[in-house]
């Protein structure tokens, strides 16, 4: 067992987990959670329309499939209420273990749901149920993971530590899409449609087992233990956070909403559009996405380091303004069949902005809230942003194009980006807040 190190604070000396343990527990668990979530996103864009909705037109089947994708985002605030309550009352560690288990069971179950040909509409209903449970689990995951990281961090490295769970997102995405890429190159299209799409959901069981093992080695975070020693916890964290920090919840939701809309436009929607309208094969586009995801991970880490040096607001305000421009410009990159140069620009520029937005927010959202409601506040904010920005973003984008053409694809993201810029203008810098309170 590794020796723990000490975190010095005024009048207190607190033990924290070794850096390696913090990285593994926060990054790996989040990577597994996002592997599960992205497996659903990929399958909903490429396979679910014909597996669960073959009785409808191709466009309607795609819209219905993408709507099932949004079910989890509706569930995520409920997950943040549930896990936030226990995370602020009982501690971060136990809550994180349970959230991972809930997510894993739901994901593996999706791999066993029969299609429309076997049980009719019951397949789609079971799919929505499992997707809802997935959302409950993920609703408690992110906030717990970033608190394990940031509540173990030195004061001048909170954004860097907060980037550990954030970079789990591209890791999970890369592993998931890499598995789909391999499967699509060794199985026939008919085999993928029949059973191949189920394999990533089954494989999640192995990853969840590894994640549970890592997280059980954690101790409670030093700042939560300090709050317990100071009797600075609350029996009703949800009531407290909505009473005392409702402004922070609103601001944080709109700070993050456009980021979510961008991410699922770059991934779930673009996968569907590129393969159905632009002439890219599914495996070809997955390979492009995997390359862009590496760029995403690099930007998460580098911009988080920058945010520790110059402040969160300068970095994130700049990226938000760039997103306003990108929302209007990116449809021009996607003109023409199999436009490889345009697609590389779309993904390359998009993930530079996306990584800059997503990295430092792992520190920003927790910094908006005091320790006694931090799990609840950060989780509710993050997951409300998911509802606003991602629950219907792929579906709305698909509908806008069908009604008004390709150049309308970025309108939803544009509106959210403008709101995000306004929210940043109203939010003070959080870099130097007292994180022990």
UniProtKB/TrEMBL annotation:
The Major facilitator superfamily (MFS) profile domain, residue ranges: 22-431
UniProt family annotation: Belongs to the major facilitator superfamily. Metabolite:H+ Symporter (MHS) family (TC 2.A.1.6) family.
Keyword Cell division attributed: no
Alphabetical list of Pfam families matching this protein: Sugar_tr
PROSITE patterns to which the protein is assigned, alphabetical: MFS, SUGAR_TRANSPORT_1
Record protein name field: Putative proline/betaine transporter
Any GO MF annotation of the entry: symporter activity
Keywords: Cell membrane, Membrane, Symport, Transmembrane, Transmembrane helix, Transport
Entry-linked PANTHER family: INNER MEMBRANE METABOLITE TRANSPORT PROTEIN YHJE, SHIKIMATE TRANSPORTER
Subcellular location: Cell membrane
Stated role: May be a proton symporter involved in the uptake of osmolytes such as proline and glycine betaine.
Topology within the bilayer: Multi-pass membrane protein
Cellular component, GO, one term: plasma membrane
Residues passing through the membrane, by range: 21-40, 60-83, 95-113, 119-138, 159-183, 195-214, 253-273, 285-303, 315-334, 340-359, 380-402, 408-427
Organism: Ligilactobacillus ruminis
């Amino acid at each position: 067992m590794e020796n723990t190190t000490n975190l010095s604070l005024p009048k207190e000396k607190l033990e924290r987990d070794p850096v390696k343990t913090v990285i593994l527990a926060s990054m790996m668990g989040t990577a597994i959670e996002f592997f599960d979530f992205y497996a659903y996103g990929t399958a909903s864009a490429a396979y679910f329309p014909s597996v669960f909705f073959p009785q409808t037109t191709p466009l309607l089947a795609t819209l219905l499939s993408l709507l099932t994708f949004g079910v989890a985002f509706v569930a995520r605030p409920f997950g943040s209420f549930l896990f936030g309550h226990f995370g602020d009352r009982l501690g971060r560690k136990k809550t994180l273990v349970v959230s991972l288990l809930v997510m894993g069971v739901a994901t593996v179950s999706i791999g066993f749901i029969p299609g429309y040909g076997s049980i009719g509409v019951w397949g789609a209903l079971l799919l929505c149920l499992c997707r809802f449970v997935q959302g409950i689990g993920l609703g408690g995951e992110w906030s717990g993971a970033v608190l394990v990281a940031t509540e173990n961090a030195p004061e001048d490295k909170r954004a860097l530590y907060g980037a550990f769970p954030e970079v789990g997102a591209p890791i999970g995405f890369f592993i998931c899409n890499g598995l789909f890429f391999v499967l699509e190159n060794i199985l026939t299209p008919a085999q993928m449609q029949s059973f191949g799409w189920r394999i990533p959901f089954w494989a999640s069981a192995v990853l969840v087992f590894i994640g549970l093992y890592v997280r059980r080695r954690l101790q409670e975070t030093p700042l939560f233990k300090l709050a317990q020693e100071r009797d600075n916890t609350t029996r009703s964290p949800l009531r407290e956070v909505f009473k005392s920090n409702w402004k922070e919840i609103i601001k944080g939701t709109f700070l993050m909403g456009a980021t979510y809309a961008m991410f699922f436009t770059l991934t779930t929607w673009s996968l569907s559009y590129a393969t159905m309208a632009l002439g890219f094969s599914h495996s070809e586009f997955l390979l492009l996405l995997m390359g862009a995801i590496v760029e995403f991970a690099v930007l998460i880490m580098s911009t988080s380091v920058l945010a520790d040096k110059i402040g969160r607001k300068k970095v994130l305000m700049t990226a938000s303004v760039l997103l306003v421009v990108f929302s209007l410009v990116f449809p021009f990159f996607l003109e023409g069949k199999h436009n490889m140069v345009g697609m590389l620009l779309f993904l390359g520029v998009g993930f530079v902005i996306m990584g800059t937005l997503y990295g430092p927010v792992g520190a920003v959202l927790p910094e908006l809230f005091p320790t006694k409601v931090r799990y609840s506040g950060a989780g509710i904010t993050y997951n409300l942003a998911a509802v606003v920005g991602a629950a219907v973003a792929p579906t709305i984008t698909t509908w806008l194009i069908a009604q008004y053409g390709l150049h309308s694809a970025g309108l939803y993201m544009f509106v959210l980006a403008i709101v995000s810029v306004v929210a940043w203008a109203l939010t003070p810098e959080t870099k130097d807040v007292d994180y022990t309170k």
